[in-house]
C-alpha cells in the first residue's frame, strides 16, 4: 500500500541520517570537547557537536523530503506541509558523550497523524542500530528485537534517569530511594533512547522516567512497543513528558501502579 511505501522510504532516510550523524560524532569528537552552552541549569549542557549533528541531520532530511516538518532538541522547528514530522535528538546522552562514556545515540523518528511510523536509534559505540516500523516489528541490526519475559517486580532490573533541575532531581531520587528496595536493581544509563531499546532487547526488564521530551522517547517508544513492550504514562494514560514507562505486559501494570503509589510525578 501507499502507507507501506511511505514507511519504507522514511525508514531508509532515517537509517541513512542516523548512520551519517553517528559516524560524524564518533570520528569527529574533539579531544578537548567542552560545553558550548547551558540550558535549563548549569548541568544541562550542549556541546558544539550536538548542534553540528542536528544541522547535519536536518540538512539530510530537507534534501530527501523538503516538505516535511522537523522538531529537534537543539532548536529545529519546521512546520512542513506534507503531514510527516521528524522528531530528532542529535545526541541522546550528551553528558556521556562529553565525558567519553560510550552510551549515547542518535535518535530519529517520523510521525504522521499523531502516530509514530518509524523509529531509529543508532548507538555508534555499541556498534548497534535499533529500528522499528509501525506494525513491522523491531530489529537490532538484522535480528528481531524481543522483550524479556516479565519477571515479578521484585526481580526486575529497572532503568531510569534524572532531569536537569535540582528540585526535580531530589524528588526523582526520593522515588528511586523507595523503589530500589522493591526491585532487583536500578540502572541509570544516561540515554533515554538507549534505555528504551534496552527494554526492547531484554537488557533491561523495564524503564521509567519523569520529564522527558518527545525527542528523547519518540523513536525508542516505537522500538519498545514493536518488540513486545507496553509503554505509557500514569495508569491509563499514554506516555508523555509527564511520565514514560516501558515494560512487557504483566510487569508494566505493576510498575505503573507502584510508581503511582510512590507519587513519581508529584513535585
Ligand atoms: C537526556 C538523556 C538522559 C535523561 C535526560 C535526557 P540529552 O537527554 O536521555 O538519559 O535522563 O532526561 O534529557 O540531554 O542527553 O539529549
Ligand atoms: Ca535526549
Ligand atoms: Ca540531546
Ligand atoms: Ca540535552
From TrEMBL:
<dbReference type="InterPro" id="IPR020583">
    <property type="entry name" value="Inositol_monoP_metal-BS"/>
</dbReference>
<keyword id="KW-0460">Magnesium</keyword>
<protein>
    <recommendedName>
        <fullName>Inositol-1-monophosphatase</fullName>
        <ecNumber>3.1.3.25</ecNumber>
    </recommendedName>
</protein>
<dbReference type="InterPro" id="IPR033942">
    <property type="entry name" value="IMPase"/>
</dbReference>
<dbReference type="InterPro" id="IPR020550">
    <property type="entry name" value="Inositol_monophosphatase_CS"/>
</dbReference>
<keyword id="KW-0378">Hydrolase</keyword>
<comment type="similarity">
    <text>Belongs to the inositol monophosphatase superfamily.</text>
</comment>
<dbReference type="Pfam" id="PF00459">
    <property type="entry name" value="Inositol_P"/>
</dbReference>
<dbReference type="InterPro" id="IPR000760">
    <property type="entry name" value="Inositol_monophosphatase-like"/>
</dbReference>
<keyword id="KW-0479">Metal-binding</keyword>
